[in-house]
Design a protein that fits this description.
Elements lengths: L25 E4 L41 H28 L5 E8 L2 E2 L2 E2 L4 E4 L5 H11 L6 E3 L12 H7 L5 E7 H4 L2 H24 L1
Helix pairs in contact: 2-5
């Protein structure tokens, strides 16, 4: 039996791509950029206020639970959301490669200030899997910023089992990459988002230049 289409007519696309013609080498992804839930899922049984938390999206960089799903329900979510998102990334990276353009994958995420009652001290973190070179370069530069506590593969780690974007779109293609986690209280408001955007716009090129010299 085929899975019933998850998204109804008129619902938002599961993926958007912005500024594809931009000239930067940096290709930014955000796996958990929104908190929209398909109407067919009836809000996943969550009250509205719960969908504003990290269980629904990465606040500040612009998921719902998947527990006890039938195979049909799982297939519907893969077909409607997961596959279009990653196909879009793959196609965009293919186009850049065909055009002879460099690509540096930057996967953006955010994390909660407190987890299971324990405060997290890091303002931001760099994550990596097999290739730590760009992450280490960016880590060194972030460490030099006044007042920042920076995590090195914490509070999360990237592995083939816990991540998809970095292993598949970064490492399989042999691209330089880094996954960046920013604590949500740093980017909850527009001023903090702008500050971090400016910081990364300044530090990512410097980190990549340092990476190229290694």
């Amino acid at each position: 039996m085929a899975a019933k289409p998850l998204l109804e007519p008129g619902e938002a696309d599961p993926v958007t791509i912005d500024n594809e013609a931009g000239r930067s080498v940096f290709f930014l992804t955000c796996d958990h950029a929104g908190r929209a839930i398909p109407r067919r899922l009836d809000g996943l049984g969550l009250p509205e206020h719960e969908t504003r938390r990290h269980i629904a999206w990465d606040i500040g960089v612009e998921i719902p639970g998947n527990r006890n799903l039938t195979e049909l329900a799982r297939a519907a979510r893969i077909d409607a959301i997961f596959r279009p998102y990653h196909d879009t990334i793959a196609t965009a990276l293919d186009r850049r490669a065909t055009a002879g353009r460099e690509s540096v994958l930057v996967a953006l995420h955010s994390f909660t200030p407190v987890f299971k009652g324990v405060a997290r001290p890091w303002h931001a973190a760099v994550l990596y899997n097999r290739d730590a070179r760009l992450a280490r370069s960016l880590f060194d530069l972030l460490q030099g910023e006044d007042g920042l506590v920076v995590g090195d593969n914490e509070p999360y780690r990237v592995t083939d089992l816990t991540d998809y974007t970095v292993p598949v779109h970064g490492e399989r293609r042999g691209l330089p990459y880094v996954e960046i986690e920013i604590r949500q209280d740093q980017i909850r408001e527009p001023a903090g988002q702008a500050a971090w955007a400016q910081r990364l716009a300044r530090l990512l090129p410097a980190a990549y230049a340092k990476f190229l010299r290694r």
